[in-house]
Structures are given as structure tokens and as C-alpha cells.
């Protein structure tokens, strides 16, 4: 069967009658059309006739095909003035003598073969039609099954076959008209509660056709029978791998908001329930949040509840999530930890390296990794740090290892918002005095132990951006992103030209390195409109990069994007999807970019690292400004480069920009020259030295904020804090006079209850200072009848590091001058310009 034509009319007729045909009886052979026949040879040699033949089949049997395919077929027939009378006896291919009752065992045993055929070639209409039929027959088996046989059937061969079908990928296919009608009837019955007759049968049927976000489901899992519980929970947590229709990304966001809210409520309302503990465990281990990224919604509530559920699971496993750090010692340097899964050449490593690559020597940097590779980039990263620690395998040991290093700041450089990876589990713990994350996690972590999220004014320009974050939002000037590639040793391994890709020299090539997950139907539609509007244009995609996944449903994606483009009348050779082996390094990517003309960024999840290579070769990029961090990242990069005229604020503007560049070679060259010139000036998003300095300043401010709080608590500071620097080597009588004057003056003030007097003990032991001060105060109380019961409160200040002094002096209202002062101690603090506080 070279094209499948010799069987189509026969098999479609069989399909319409619900007959699978595992055992072919001799009479049916009469209806076969052989590949060697003259009719089929004519079709094979005439592509126009071939497309008309397919269009006839689709039109004759429209209930078997998706609505888009039927419309395409009708268009082909209209263009050729072919009119079909679908009720004509000549066109009837239905063979009513076919059996309606296939052998069930044949159906069940034959399904793996059907699935394999479909997965090998999703575009094979025959394989898809067979799998659709098998699905319908299994659905009807569930619906016809008596309730008392349901458990046995589900736990037996039928249930196993059901699971195989769920994993086949057929749910990525759009439903045919007849399937839509069938599912609509099922959904009406599925709205009943689970203890109603046959509702479970309706659910089992519906899950063959729809993903969880497309169904009315029960979230109270105590109502689910035990034999179905595990699979029902897995289905609830099933995440879409491939969105097939516009609006599905937003639909999934709404579903997950409702699901997480419900599960969170049940879990925390029933903390001792084994059922809800099991739900929390399954959620923590297997919930995948990647598909949640591709919308413009505020995800804070979802992520806060996600973090709380995972944290509750860890606490039940006796993990110590929270931790009180001991009082910090007097070390001069700020100890900074960088936590990552690895330091291999990936986007996360490139984005985190500028954090510490050139950071001030005020910092002591420790890298923490789950693995050690000794590759060149890892070695370079280690050279930018003071220490490198490969963490042990066990989570508790990992936590203890990091805590033992007494970190001041921990920067988390791995995405902890996609799946529950090991870094995610670590990040839930208090591992440092201050914990920070940034661009690796493209949304809020929702974790209470992560204190700050570092973004940028261009990347989070919205006035109410803080509402999207559980962490305190800190905005750098400009963009949040900066990339460094260390000392690059890799070179381009591929040579690329237009001829090798089958693209003519006069074609306009639009290109995108946006990842598979980012190319949702809305993006496909926009790009199809652009290609349709620019004559002689081609779209080149590189969607299967390793940063997001190592396994993609590539064939299903290709089928979907091809179908989307064909709806706009775009022939197949104007869309090229690359999947090169071996994986491309960034220098290989540039070879493809050099032959292209315009780069198209994705939305509502825009690119960042994928935009650097196009800019490095001087390529104009069209980006669309979103309303939150993940949608504004690409636009921020372009605005940082001062090419904001390439940032669109709507689909219409995005298309207009792309079409203008695609149809105007002079404009393209102008923008290319402009970008090349600006890139030569070392833009901010590639200036690691400047970025390290900015981050270093921010880290110091954040840590000082922590130290201020710590000092306030340890010294029990009040509203008005004053400090004195007595020279303890002076005669006791001189010290007594100074203290008497100061304490008498303060004790007479009406606001003495709000005052704190801090006494420096730089040149005396704490014990001796305490004894001397106690003696002075006691004498004043007895001889001068001084009343200090209501204030001021007095505290001794011992040896402090410079960092601690800086924190303390931000809380001090003034210094009280003494006759007998420690000039050396005061000289060290002269730079802090502490004002004199007069007492009389």
C-alpha cells in the first residue's frame, strides 16, 4: 500500500459501520482497490487528482474528520467546481452488510498495534481513523457495561487497554464532528455526583476524549471508589503536553486554580486523613506546572498553595523546614551561596553566572551542586567562586551541609516552579539568613522561605507587579536578565545554507528558536498570518531544545502546526521544523540564524536566552509586550538595547511589524545595522561586570536589612536609640560623672520610656563593663535618687563586625558626647556620620 488509496473507500465504509475488521472474510476482498491498478496509478502520478480524491473522501465522510479538514476539502472541491450529491446512490460507500459486533478480544489485543501505527506516523489518516474507531468501541464497552461488572473489567484487560489508549497521544487530535456530539452527550451525564448510577462509566468514557481541564470533575476524592482512586488522582494531575486549540492555555490556568485551591483546602482541613496525605504526596511528586506558564494570569495564589502542600509533605517526613540561625560571628565577608542542579552549559547557568562572576571581594562565594562534571564551564564557574560543594544524595544531609556553612545569602539558580525537583525541595527550607531567587524561576516560587525575587524595571514594569509575588520584589535598573557564557571553547560544527534547506535565495526567512511549549495555538495562528501575508516567505522553527525537556511529541506537533498553516493556504514547503542531531550548541544555532531575515519571539511567554544569538548576528526581533514578568522578558531585552520600536503591544501590531520587515528589504537592513551597532557597545544584558556590581549592591542592602532586624531583636532596640563611647581606661570618677550627666538628663525626659541607651564596650570585656555600669547605676539610684525604672533601657554593645556596625548605626538616632570618650572607636565610625544628640 504505497499511498493507502487502494483501501480507503472500503475501510472508511467499514469504519462508519463500527467494524474493526481484524479477521478479513473473503467477500470483503472484492472491494479492495489494488496499488497496481490503473486508477490508483493515475492518482499517484497526478498530485492534483490525488488531492481531489482525498477531498472527496473527506467530504463524503465528514463525520470522521475534524472541522478544519472538512473546510479544506470543501475549498479544494469548490476551486475545481466539483459538486457532490452526498445522497446519490453512486456516491454511497456504506456497506450495510458489514458486521456491527467485532470480537472484543480482537479489539483489545489489537490496540497496541493500532497505537504503534499512529505514533509512528500521526499524519497517517488511516492509522488515526483506526485508532478513533478503537476508542469509540472501548467507550461503548464502558457505557454498556453493567455496574456490577465494572470493577472486574477495570482491573482486567479492558482497564489495561484503557490505560494504553490514554497514553497514545490521540487526545492531542481535534475531535471530529461526530465525536464532539458523542462527548457532549457524555458530559451531560457526567455532571451527576459520583455515587449516581453509571457516572463512573461516563467518566471513564470522557477521559478517553478529554483532558481533565475540559471536564466537570469531582475534587473531593473521598467520594472516589478505592479501585479507581489512584488513576483518578493521576488524571486530575495530568498536564497537557500539547495545546491543540486556541484558549486551551487559559482554560488550563482556570482549571488548575480551582484544582489547587480545592486540594489545598481538603488537605489542610483534614491533616490526619490518610487519603488527603496520599493526595498531598502524589501532588508533591508528580504535579507538573510547565503548562501553567502560557497565560497572562496572576499565578501567586496557585504557587503559594503549591508550596504549602509540598512543605506539608516534607514536614510529615520529619524534615526541619524552618531554622533559626545562631548570632552571626564577626567575619568580615558576606558569605554567599549559589545553589543549582549543575553548572553545565544551559540557559540557567548562563543567567546565574553574572550574579557572582565579578562580584566584589566583600563576598565569599560557595557553589552548591547536585553533581560534578568537571566540564570547562563548570570549571570556569568554580574559578569565580571561593568554594565548590557537591551535595550528598540525601535531602536531609543536603540541608545540613548547607546550613553548616552558616550562609548569609543563598541565591537559587535553578527553576523551582516547573516540577518538584531536588532544588525545589531544598528551596523550601531555611538554608541561609537571606534567600533570593531570580530569572531561573519565571514566576513566584510561593515559598515563605524565599525572601526576595530580583527582577528589573523593564522586565516588571507594571505598577502592581508586587501582587504577582510571594517574595519581596526587588527591581534592578533596566532588565532582570544578564547572560555570560564564560570562556567558550565550543565552535560551530555545522555549515548551513539556504540550498541545503530547500529555500531559494530570494525567499524571506522568518525564524524562531522558541521552545515547543511556548508555541501554543495562538502563536501558531499569528505566525501563519504573517507567512500568508508576506509573499515568498518561509518560517524556520527550532523548537526541540534541551533546556525544557528531553522528550517531545514531535510528530504530533508537526502535524498540528502543518494543519494550522494549511488552513491559511500555506503550502508545506514554506514551513520547516528543524530537529538536528546532535543537539545544536549556540554557535551552531547562529549558523542557521545567519541565513534568516527576521526573528519571531513567542508570547504570552516570551524568550530571553533564545534572543541573544539572533541579536549577536544582528537580526531584527519582533517581540510582544506582556502584562507580567514572563510576558515582558523579551520586550525588556529589546528595550534595554534601545530598539523598543520592535516591541508590539498587540497581535495586530506584532503582525504589522513582521509584515513590514518581511516585505521591505531596506527596512530590514536598516534595523540589522542598528542592532549590530548597539550590540558592539556591550549591552547591559551581556555586561557581566556591571551586573555583578549591581547584584552585589543589592545583596548588601538585603543582608543589611536582615542584620538591622537581627540587631533590633538582639539589643531590644526602641523608638529612640542613642549611643555613647566611654573610654573605660579613664578613672572611675570621670566615668561616673559622664554616666551621671547622661542618665540624669535622659531620665528626666518625658519620652524616656521610648529610649534605649547603647554603651560601647570596645576596650573592655563585657563582664567588666557590666559590673562597672551596674555599680554606677546603683550609686546614682542611691545617692542621686535617680529613677530609671521607666527608662531608659540600657544595653552593652560588644565587639561588632563592620557589617553589624553598619546595620546598628542605621537605627541610632544620635551619639551623646562624653568628656571621657574612646576616640579610637569613634574614629572607626566617623564615615557613618552619626549625629550628635544633645542632653542637658
List keywords for this structure.
840 residues; six-stranded parallel β-sheet; seven-stranded parallel β-sheet; alpha/beta
Structural notes for this entry:
The chain has 31 helices and 17 strands. It is of the alpha/beta class and 840 residues long. The strands form 3 sheets. Strands 3-2-1-4-5-6-7 form a 7-stranded parallel beta sheet, with helices on one face. It has a 6-stranded parallel beta sheet with strand order 10-9-8-11-12-13, sandwiched between helices. It has a 4-stranded parallel beta sheet with strand order 16-15-14-17, covered by helices on one side. α4 (47-60) packs across α5, α13 runs antiparallel to α14 (274-286) and α27 packs across α30. Among the domains are: 1-102, no CATH class; 334-476, Rossmann fold; 499-686, Glycogen Phosphorylase B (Rossmann fold, 3-Layer(aba) Sandwich); 715-832, no CATH class. 45% of the residues lie in helices and 9% in strands.
Mean pLDDT: 89
Largest sheet: 7 strands, parallel
Q: What is the overall number of helices? A: 31
Helix content: 40-55%
CATH C-level label of one domain: Alpha Beta
Q: Reading side by side through the largest sheet, how are the strands ordered? A: 3-2-1-4-5-6-7
Morphology: elongated
Rg, Å, rounded = 35 Å
Low-confidence stretches: 20-35, 85-102
- What is CATH's topology name of one domain? Rossmann fold
CATH homologous superfamily label of one domain = Glycogen Phosphorylase B
Amino acid at each position: 500500500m504505497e499511498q493507502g488509496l487502494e483501501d480507503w473507500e472500503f475501510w472508511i465504509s467499514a469504519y462508519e459501520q463500527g467494524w474493526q475488521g481484524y479477521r478479513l472474510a473473503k467477500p470483503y476482498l472484492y472491494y479492495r482497490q489494488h496499488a497496481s491498478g490503473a486508477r490508483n496509478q493515475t492518482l499517484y502520478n497526478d498530485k492534483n487528482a490525488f488531492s481531489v480524491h482525498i477531498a472527496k473522501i473527506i467530504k463524503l465522510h465528514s463525520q470522521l474528520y475534524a472541522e478544519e479538514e472538512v473546510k479544506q476539502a470543501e475549498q479544494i472541491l469548490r476551486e475545481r467546481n466539483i459538486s457532490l450529491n452526498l445522497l446519490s446512490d453512486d456516491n454511497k460507500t456504506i456497506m450495510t452488510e458489514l458486521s456491527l459486533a467485532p470480537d472484543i478480544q480482537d479489539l483489545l489485543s489489537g490496540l497496541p498495534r493500532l497505537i504503534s501505527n499512529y505514533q509512528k506516523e500521526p499524519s497517517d489518516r488511516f492509522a488515526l481513523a483506526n485508532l478513533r474507531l478503537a476508542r469509540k468501541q472501548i467507550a461503548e464497552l464502558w457505557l454498556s457495561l453493567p455496574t456490577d461488572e465494572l470493577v472486574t473489567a477495570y482491573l482486567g484487560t479492558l482497564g489495561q487497554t484503557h490505560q494504553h489508549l490514554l497514553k497514545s497521544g490521540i487526545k492531542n487530535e481535534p475531535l471530529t464532528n461526530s465525536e464532539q456530539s458523542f462527548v457532549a452527550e457524555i458530559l451531560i451525564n457526567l455532571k451527576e455526583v459520583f455515587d449516581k448510577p453509571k457516572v463512573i462509566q461516563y467518566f471513564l468514557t470522557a477521559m478517553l476524549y478529554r483532558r481533565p481541564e475540559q471536564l466537570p470533575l469531582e475534587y473531593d476524592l473521598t467520594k472516589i471508589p478505592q479501585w479507581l482512586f489512584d488513576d483518578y488522582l493521576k488524571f486530575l494531575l495530568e498536564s497537557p503536553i500539547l495545546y491543540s486549540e486556541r484558549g486551551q492555555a487559559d482554560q488550563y490556568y482556570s482549571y488548575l486554580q480551582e484544582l489547587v485551591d480545592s486540594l489545598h483546602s481538603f488537605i489542610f482541613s483534614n491533616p490526619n486523613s490518610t487519603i488527603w496525605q496520599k493526595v498531598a504526596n502524589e501532588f508533591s511528586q508528580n504535579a507538573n506546572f510547565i503548562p501553567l506558564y502560557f497565560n497572562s494570569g496572576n499565578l501567586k495564589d496557585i504557587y503559594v498553595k503549591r508550596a504549602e502542600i509540598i512543605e506539608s509533605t516534607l514536614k510529615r517526613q520529619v524534615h526541619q523546614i524552618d531554622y533559626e540561625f545562631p548570632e552571626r560571628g564577626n567575619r568580615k565577608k558576606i558569605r554567599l551561596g549559589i545553589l543549582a542542579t549543575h553548572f553545565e552549559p544551559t540557559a540557567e547557568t548562563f543567567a546565574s553566572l553574572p550574579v557572582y562572576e565579578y562580584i566584589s571581594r566583600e563576598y565569599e562565594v560557595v557553589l552548591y551542586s547536585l553533581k560534578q562534571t568537571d566540564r570547562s564551564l563548570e570549571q570556569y564557574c568554580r574559578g569565580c567562586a571561593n568554594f565548590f560543594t557537591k551535595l550528598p544524595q540525601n535531602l536531609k544531609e543536603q540541608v545540613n551541609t548547607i546550613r553548616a556553612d552558616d550562609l548569609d545569602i543563598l541565591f537559587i539558580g535553578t527553576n523551582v516552579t516547573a516540577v518538584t525537583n531536588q532544588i525545589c525541595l531544598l528551596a523550601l527550607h531555611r538554608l541561609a539568613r537571606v534567600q533570593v531567587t531570580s530569572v531561573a524561576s519565571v514566576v513566584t516560587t510561593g515559598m515563605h522561605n524565599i525572601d526576595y525575587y530580583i527582577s528589573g524595571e523593564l522586565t516588571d514594569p507594571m505598577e502592581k507587579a508586587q501582587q504577582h509575588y510571594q517574595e519581596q520584589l526587588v527591581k534592578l535598573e533596566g532588565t532582570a536578565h544578564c547572560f555570560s557564557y564564560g570562556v567558550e571553547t565550543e565552535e560551530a560544527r555545522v555549515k548551513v545554507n539556504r540550498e541545503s534547506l530547500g529555500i531559494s535565495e530570494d525567499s524571506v526567512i522568518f525564524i524562531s528558536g522558541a521552545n515547543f511549549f511556548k508555541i501554543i495555538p495562538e502563536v501558531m495562528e499569528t505566525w501563519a498570518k504573517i507567512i500568508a501575508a508576506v509573499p515568498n516567505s518561509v518560517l524556520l522553527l527550532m523548537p526541540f531544545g534541551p533546556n525544557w525537556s528531553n522528550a517531545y511529541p514531535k510528530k504530533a506537533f508537526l502535524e498540528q502546526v502543518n494543519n494550522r498553516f494549511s488552513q491559511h493556504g500555506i503550502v508545506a514547503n514554506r514551513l520547516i521544523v528543524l530537529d538536528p542531531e546532535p543537539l545544536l550548541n549556540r554557535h551552531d544555532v547562529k549558523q542557521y540564524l545567519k541565513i534568516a531575515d527576521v526573528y519571531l519571539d513567542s508570547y504570552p511567554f516570551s524568550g530571553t536566552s533564545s534572543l541573544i544569538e539572533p541579536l549577536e548576528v544582528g537580526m531584527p526581533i519582533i517581540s510582544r509586550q506582556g502584562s507580567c514578568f514572563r510576558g515582558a522578558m523579551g520586550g525588556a531585552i529589546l528595550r534595554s538595547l534601545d530598539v523598543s520600536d520592535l516591541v508590539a503591544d498587540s497581535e495586530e501590531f506584532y503582525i504589522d511589524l513582521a509584515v513590514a520587515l518581511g516585505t521591505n528589504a531596506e527596512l530590514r537592513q536598516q534595523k540589522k545595522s542598528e542592532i549590530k551597532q548597539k550590540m558592539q557597545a556591550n549591552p547591559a544584558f551581556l555586561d557581566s561586570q556591571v551586573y555583578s556590581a549591581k547584584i552585589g549592591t543589592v545583596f548588601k542592602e538585603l543582608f543589611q536589612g536582615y542584620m538591622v532586624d537581627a540587631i533590633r531583636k538582639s539589643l531590644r532596640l526602641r523608638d529612640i536609640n542613642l549611643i555613647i563611647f566611654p573610654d573605660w581606661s579613664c578613672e572611675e570618677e570621670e566615668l561616673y560623672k559622664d554616666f551621671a550627666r547622661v542618665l540624669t538628663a535622659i531620665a528626666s525626659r518625658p519620652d524616656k520610656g521610648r529610649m534605649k541607651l547603647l554603651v560601647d564596650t570596645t576596650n573592655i570585656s563585657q563582664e567588666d563593663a557590666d559590673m562597672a555600669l551596674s555599680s554606677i547605676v546603683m550609686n546614682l539610684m542611691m545617692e542621686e535618687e535617680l529613677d530609671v525604672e521607666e527608662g531608659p533601657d540600657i544595653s552593652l554593645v560588644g565587639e561588632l563586625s563592620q557589617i553589624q556596625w553598619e546595620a546598628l548605626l542605621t537605627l541610632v538616632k544620635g551619639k551623646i558626647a562624653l568628656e571621657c570618650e574612646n576616640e579610637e572607636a569613634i574614629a572607626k565610625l566617623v564615615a557613618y556620620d552619626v549625629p550628635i544628640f544633645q542632653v542637658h
